[in-house]
Amino acid sequence: MPEVDRVIHEPGRLVIVALLSSIKEADFTFLLRETGLTKGNLSSHLSKLEAASYVHIEKAYRGKVPWTLVRLTPEGRAAFKEYRKQVNLLLEGQNGRSSGEHCRA
Amino acid sequence: MDDLYLISKRPFTFWAQDGLPSLVFGLNFMLTGLVFLIGFSLPRNPFYPFAALLLWGVIILASRWGLMKLKRRIVFPRSGYIAFQPRGWMFHASVIAIGIVLAAFVPIVIRQSSFHGWTLNAGPAAAFLFALASLDSWFRYRFPDGILLAGVSVAVGVWMFHTHAQFISGLLWLVIATGGAGAFTGGLRLYVFLRTSGIGKEGPDA
User: Model's pTM, two decimal places?
Assistant: First the structure.
């Protein structure tokens, strides 16, 4: 059975990575709104993704207001692509087992 | 995995949901249509086609600049900022190639339509194609006005058919009508967006 990437597999981080996969970059406010996470939760997930080198976080200022930009790294994009393959394989394997059991029954 | 696909499409919905793209490009369409409609009603002058194309280019560039300026000022501070992946050279080359083919195709259609009496069908056919393109933008990019624009295109196509509208003027009215519809709904959505979205703050946790 293929092992899924546990860094991406967590639901909050999975949504973050899925959102970032189709764009170049986004800021903290966008991710906050779209994920529905609390600020602390989102920060924690982003830190874990950054530790795994899946995202690059850039801290800047918009005037005097702090501004955090997040983008997927090439490793992060590759990891997400691999994760989708792993889960598809898992699901196909599960479907095959279920239909086989049905036939035996 | 279908859910992940839907999540990855959400930035496209986010980009359009404040109404600014519909408003700006709706006004763009209306202005373009009016400029060409006025141009075709003026006495013939060899300078006019070049002036019209130049003006069209200026309108397109000004729309893009205006949209990004308004997004930075009004939308990004409220609902967040995103940037799409830059398109590669192949995409830009394809767009230019398609533009050249269309620019060569339209005079041929006009010529053939007046010669063979296709005028009655070419305009409604163009409206039908525009409706399909609108539905495609709704389906692929979650563009919220796609269905409305498709409906307006079909309505204009039916009007063109029943009034025996000339191809060029019918097409220009199609552009003006869909632009107007887009600008109207875009303006409404922008109004609702501004009333419901406050300025976001990252806070010390970010």
Answer: 0.77
